[in-house]
Records
---
Amino acid sequence: MRRLVIPVLAFKGVLINCSVNIQRIEKDLYRLSEFGGNAAEKGIYRQGFSEADWQARSWLMDYFRQYGLVTHMDGVGNVCGRLGDNELPAVLIGSHLDSVPAGGMFDGVLGVIAGLECIRVIQEQKIPLKHPIEVIATSEEEGRFGGMLGAQALTGALTLDWLEHAKAPDGLALVDAMAQRGLDYHQALHAYRTPESIKAFLELHIEQGPVLEASGNSIGVVEGISGIFKWLIKLIGKADHAGTAPMNMRSDAFMGVADFAHEIQRIIDEDGTDKSRLTIGRVELKPGYAHTIPGEADFTLVGRDMSEEVMHELATNCRKALSSIARRHRLMFEYEQMSWLGPKTCSQDIMSLIETHTQKLNYSYEIMPSGAGHDAQFFTDITPTGMIFIPSIGGISHAPDEWSHWADVEKGCNVLLNTVIELAAE
Ligand SMILES: [Zn+2]
C-alpha cells in the first residue's frame, strides 16, 4: 500500500498552502453569536460597551489564554492576544467584536476568529516564525459613539477632546459608558502602538455588498477604503396651501430634492468613476402635512470614491446642480459639510502577497475597493495594511439575514493564514 504523502511546498523557506480547520471556526462563530444574540433570530445586539459586548470580550480573553496567548485588554477595550515573545514588529490581525443593533454573526467577528485560527494552525504545525503575531478584537467599531474607537486608539488618531465629547444617540457619554465597564478613559490614549512595533495589519471581513456574489469570485483583494463626504442640505421654499396655490406659482422644496435626485446619475457619468457613489439617505419635509406644499426640505448627501480628486469634482458638480435647481424652483439652497474623509490605500506589497497566495490556493478573486469603512483604514496611515473580502449572500449585512457560505469563510481564512505566515516568517 502506498503511503499517503501530503505535499509540502517550500516558498522562501516557508511552508505554504496550510489550511484552517473550518469546523473549529464555525463553532467559534456560533459561540460568539450567543453574546447579544436573540433566540428568535432577530439579530445580534452587541453594541460597543454594552453588557453583551463586555461578556463577549471577557469570554474571548479566557479563550485566547487557553491557547497560551499573552492576553490583555487595553485602555480602550481592545482585546489583544499575542503569540511570540520577542520585541520584533508584530503582524497584527484585527477586526471588531461589537455589532450594530440587529446585526449579523459574521461582521467583524469573522476577522477576529480567523486571526485566532491562524495562530492555532501555526501552533499545531509548529511553523517557525520570526515575528510575533497578535490578534486584536477592536472596540466600538460600529459607531454607537462614533465608531472605530479601538482602531483610532491603536493608531494614534484618537484625541482626548474627541473622547470627552462622544455620545450615543440616547445621550450616554462615551466616558460614562467606559466607566461602567471599569475603564478610565484617560487610559485609552495608552492603547497607541508605534509604527515601529507593527510589521503589518491584516483584516479579513465579509464584503457586505453584492459585488463578489455577482462576479462569482471567492476572494476580494481590497485595494483601499473609499473616501467619504457627508453634507446636510437645506432647500427652502414657501409652505403654502396645496389646493389654492397654482402649480406654476409654487416654491416647492421637495421638487428641488426630486430634481436633484435625477441629476445624480448624470453627475457620476460626467465626473465620477465606477467606484463613485452618491446617496440621499434621509429626507425631511417641513411642515410635513399632506395638504401643505413643503416649504423646506432637509436632506443628507453622502458621496464616496477611491480618489480624492474625483470626490472634489463630484462635490463641485453637486453644488452647481443644486444651485441651478434652487433657482429653477425659487428656492434658497444651503449646505453644511459634516465630514470629509479622504480615501485610504492598502499596501501594494501586501496586496500582491494576498494575490499570490489566493492564486496558489486556486481561488478565484478580484481586486476591489471597500465602499464601507473598516478598522483597517486607520492602520493604512501607520503600517502596511491589507484587507481580504469574502462574498456576502445577497450582499446583505448589518441585518439578521447576513450570511456567508462556510466554503467561502474557509477560503478567506486560508488566504489570511498563508499571508500571515509569509509576513511573520521573514
Ligand atoms: Zn465590520
Note: The CA atoms of residues 230 and 339 lie 5 Å apart.
---
Amino acid sequence: MAPRSRQRRHKKPPSSVAPMVVTPSTVVTPVPLTLSKPDPSIDALGFFSLENNVPGLSQLILQKLSMKSYEEYKLVLDGGASVSGFGFRCPQEMFQKMEDTFRFCAHCRALPSGLSDSKVLRQCKRCRNVYYCGPECQRSDWPAHRKVCQELRLVAVDRLMEWLLVTGAFVLPSGPWPCLAETVQSWDTWFSMRHLQLDATLDAVLGSHAMTTLWASVGRPRPDPDVLQGSLKRLLTDALSRPLTLGLGLRALGINVGKIGGSTVHVVGASHVETFLTRPEDYDELGYMFPGHLGLRVIMVGIDVSAGFTQNPSPPILEPGTVQLSGHRGLYHDFWEEEVETGRIAHPDLVVTFHPGFHASPDLMEAWLPTLLLLRDYEIPTLITVYSHQELAASLQILVDLDTNITAYGANPFASLKPEQAYSNPNKQPVYCNAYYIIFLGSSCQLDRRQLEEKVDGGV
Ligand SMILES: [Zn+2]
Ligand SMILES: [Zn+2]
C-alpha cells in the first residue's frame, strides 16, 4: 500500500515556518551565547516571537552578541562561522552581556533603554533571575512571580554553570555500567549506579580552575557546594536525557540491538539543539544501556542540523559495541525517499523526535503531517517527546485523530531535570525537556478516544 504521505510530498512547508524545528509554545530561550548548546526554539520563529512579549528584545540580544542580524547568528549555529565569532574579550564580558539579555522589567517589559535616567533595573533578590524597573512593578508582579521564583533561582545558576560543559571542565561520567543495565530504569537508579564515579567528577569540577573563574566573573557570590552540585546534576540529566530517551524507546518497543551490522535510530526534526557542539561520545551512554549490542547508528535528520554534522558518513556495517552519530540536512520525507528507499542509508529500527511541537500551530502541524503519515503507514516504531502534561494531551489527541496506534505514553523516567524558563515571559511555569513521551506503531482505528482523554486528564 502506498503511504498516504506520498500524496502530500510536493507540498513542502514554507521555509519561513521553520518546519521540523523545535518550536514549542512554552519555551523560548534564544540565548545560548557561546556558553552552551542552544536551548529549544532557537529558530527564527521563536527568536522573533520574543518581540511579542518584550518589544526590542531580539535587537538587544543581537547587539549584545555583536551580531548584525539573526542570519549572522544562525550562521554560527549552522557551523558556517566559528563560535568565537561572538567575539567576547574575556569571561567577565561574556557573562555580563549574557546577563544583559535578561535585563527587562518582568512586569511592564521595559528595557534599560526605555527607562528614565533616574531608574535602573534591579534583580529579584531571591532568584537573581528576573528584573524590575522599580518597587511598584515588583510588588504588582509578586502574585505571579512567587509561583516560579524558587524554580527560576535554579535556572539562574544553571545557565551560568553550563559554561563548564563547554569549556570541558565538566566531563560527563562514562564507561560501561557497573551493574545489570536492566536495573537502571530511571534517574534514581542511574545516579546510584554511577555514584562513585560521579562523586569524584563533581568534586573535581567544584575544585576546578574553571569554577573559580566562573564565579569570579559573574558579579554574584559563589553559591554553596550543595547548590553547585545540584546544578551539575541537573545539567548532566539535561545532557543525557536525549541518548537515554532513545534507549527508553528501544527498550519499550523491545527492539533487537543484536542485529548484525548494527541497529538504526533516526532522530527526526533534529536541529541545532541536537547537533550544535554535540560530540560523538555524548551518546556513549546509550551504548552502555545495551551491553553486548552489535552497533547503534544514530542519524540526525532535519533542516537545521548543524553543517559539520552532515559530513560524517554512516558506514553500512558497524563494529559491535560502537555508537555512531551522523547527520543529514533536509526534510525527513525527502530523506526517506532519497536515502532510505534507495538503500543508501539504513532503514530505521526506531524513529525518535524530540519536542516536535506539532500541537502548537497549524503551520507546524502541516509541516509535520507528511512525516507523521509516513511513519504511521510504514509502521515505523516512533517515540516523540513533549515538554509538559498539557502538550502531552494535545499531542495524543492529534495522534489519535491521525489513527496512529499509540502503544505507550507517560512521564519520561529520563526527562531532563533542568528547568527551562520561558525567556521573554519568565513568570510562565518552567518546563522540562523530554518530560513526557508517546510511542506509536502503525495505524489503528480501534482506540477509544474518550478513554484516552480520561486517562490523560487523570494524570499519567
Ligand atoms: Zn516595570
Ligand atoms: Zn524571584
Note: The radius of gyration is 22 Å.
